[in-house]
From TrEMBL:
Residues 81-214 form the Fatty acid hydroxylase domain. Keywords: Lipid metabolism, Membrane, Oxidoreductase, Transmembrane, Transmembrane helix. The chain crosses the membrane at residues 6-24, 78-95, 144-164, 295-314, 320-341, 348-365, 371-388. It is found in: Endomembrane system. This is Sterol desaturase family protein. Its main location: membrane. The keyword Phosphoprotein does not apply. GO terms for molecular function: oxidoreductase activity. The keyword Oxidoreductase applies. InterPro entries: Fatty_acid_hydroxylase, Sterol_desaturase/TMEM195.
Amino acid sequence: MKLNIIAFGIPLFIGLIYIEYLIIKRKKLNYSNLHESINNISIGIAERLCDVLVTGLFYLIYDSIQKKYGIFNIKPSVFLWILLLLATDFIWYWYHRLAHEMNVLWALHVVHHQSEDFNFTVSARITVLQAVARTGFWCVLPLIGFPAPMITGMLLVHGLYPFFVHTRLVGKLGILEYLFVTPSHHRVHHASNEQYLDKNYGDVFIIWDKLFGTFKKEDEEPVYGLTHPLKTYSFLWQHFHYFIEMAIAMKQEPTLKSKLKLLFGRPDALDPTARAKAEAIFHIKQNKSTIEKPLNNYVVWQMILLLVGLFAFILTEHYLSVGTIIAFTTFTLLTLINCGAIMEQKRWIYNVEFLRVFSLLAIAFQFHNYAIIITVLSIVAIAACIYYRPVQNRYLSLVYRYQQ
Ligand SMILES: [Zn+2]
Ligand SMILES: [Zn+2]
């Protein structure tokens, strides 16, 4: 049986997140907010899922570039693995720096910086769009001549490191601070304090920041999040708000040249009123509601089930049909959209539940023996349609129990 053991990363990292949470709780620190954490993990679930679907494609891209255009024909050796690590880290530095200095890339990377907490869950705040953009930068590696298996192996290790620097529990690390990116360095990167803006872009080594003048030591307490915070848990808005703001600002520009200048220009030059205009168009209210305990449980349980589902999905991905993959992806994304909306007390979540039932049906259709599940789900969906209003009221009163 060909199982994908990368799936075990999910229980491992969730375990580490839980240990950090227990320490934070024991020390009575305010480093972790449940809704913020759920929000971070939601974005991570979507990224992991989509990543599974595109990883094979990335491998093929690297492989064909190396075979057709690779300058050298590199064979693995200790020296070349070290060289690959340095090259990967160097490319990351420039990708990350440009992601902060160019609107078109910032639109993808901004999601990572939206959290106002700083803990292990923040490391999950990566979008699949960012993963796609990074692939463009990593293409330099096969062009040099590094083979695809070496690159994907290195990217896996290189991608694990940042998880450990997203924490406030670890102070300064003495001599390690000179060479490696430490939690202290990365706290500075996530801070919105004036003196910390656009600093410490490194991923594993801090040497690039020192070399190119973007290094800043942590001295004053960082304030985390964006300089203009996003006060919403909406899953979709967090992913796409900056694209909309950019489109609004570009529309205001008179010429193609000035539009392009804005697209590739710095984020701090973007019209500051574009956010408010975008929010008005999409009726986004600046409001992170206080959420009562019963509601938390509903969202938390959906997250737990999604994580279990994602684990099983990645573990058995080689055996899944295209239909199952599409149906599971649809169900997961709808659930994430719904959970974000529930945290904001939206009424339209009831309609999304229908779509979720249909995507569950689609999953069940992939397995012929599950005729009973299909029948039950169909009856539930039809009954909910017939008794739309009373069922909706009952559902909303159950989910938003505090309103009773
Ligand atoms: Zn960044
Ligand atoms: Zn980070």
